[in-house]
Specification:
Radius of gyration: 23 Å
Protein name: DOMON domain-containing protein
Shape: globular
CATH superfamily of the largest domain: Cellobiose dehydrogenase, cytochrome domain
Keywords: Electron transport, Membrane, Signal, Transport
Main location: membrane
InterPro entries: DOH_DOMON, DOMON_domain
Strand order of the largest sheet: 7-6-5-4-10-11-12
Helix content: 10-25%
Number of strands: 12
Number of helices: 3
Strand content: 25-35%
Number of domains: 2
Organism: Brassica oleracea var. oleracea
CATH topology of the largest domain: Immunoglobulin-like
CATH architecture of the largest domain: Sandwich
CATH class of the largest domain: Mainly Beta
């Protein structure tokens, strides 16, 4: 009988270990990560990737911005984000607020069959005030594009400017929604954050995440965080969680 109990307990330990490892793999494997130390997986880059400055502009969502001055008064940008089945956006603002700024928004549909990127004028707080194909960014013809590589989106473009606006905003749209022809209207984004970039030195000040409404006025809220794993939700490491569950199993056997 004792041997049977030990076998039962060992079996339970094995099941628990497999489940914990499986959950950890799911949580950690949901997104393909990028960093400023990663090599850009893009083909046909017009500029040597080593010349780009790089900033991790939104660590919670793993948004990475690379930029470089390519020729006189021409700047190249590449925004890298996880493919979250939603549109992504980068806005250039004079005062850190969304209203009055111009943004570049891009998306690739969940089936991967269509995608687009456009400039939008953020003229007000209602959907009708966000106007596609308008804005004051001088985008170099043919430079605006978006592509998906290994479950990440890479939106690239070039701007003609002596110095681009330093106050930048980043947003992620609602999952499963994509602007469509003929109006290409946007729905309100889920998350937004800001940075202030010094293009001359390459330094950046990372702002807090904001709610959609507060982004219009510049008021901040606590940064959004990814969903916790099974162990972190209880403040436990995976090994400690396994030990606790094992003790529970022993109690009942």
């Amino acid at each position: 009988m004792t041997r049977m109990k030990l076998c039962s307990v060992s079996f339970i330990f094995s099941v628990i270990a497999i489940q914990v490892l499986h959950l950890s793999t799911i949580v950690n494997g949901q997104q393909v990560m990028d960093s400023c130390n990663s090599t850009l997986p893009l083909e046909d880059l017009a500029l040597d990737s080593s010349l780009f400055q790089c900033v991790e502009v939104w660590s919670d969502q793993n948004y990475i911005l690379r930029y470089a001055k390519t020729v006189e008064n021409t700047w190249s940008f590449i925004l890298s984000t996880p493919d979250s089945n939603a549109y992504i956006a980068i806005g250039f603002s004079t005062n850190g607020r969304m209203v009055g700024s111009s943004a570049i928004v891009g998306w690739i549909t969940s089936d991967g069959e269509s995608g687009d990127a456009k400039q939008y004028l953020l003229g007000g707080m209602s959907p009708g005030d966000v106007i596609p194909d308008q804005g004051d960014l001088k985008i170099v013809n043919g430079s605006l594009m978006i592509e998906s590589v290994s479950s990440r989106l890479y939106m690239s473009f070039q701007l003609t400017a002596e110095l681009p606006r330093e106050k930048l905003l980043y947003a992620m749209g609602p999952a499963g929604f994509f602007p469509s022809s003929p109006e290409f209207r946007l729905r309100e984004h889920q998350f937004v954050t800001t940075t202030t970039i010094n293009y001359n030195t390459g330094s950046a000040t990372i702002g807090p995440a904001m709610s959609p409404g507060s982004a219009m006025t510049g008021a901040a809220q606590s940064p959004s965080s990814p969903a916790p794993s099974l162990s972190s939700a209880y403040g436990l490491s995976p090994s400690l969680l396994f030990f606790v569950l094992s003790l529970v199993a022993l109690k009942f056997y």
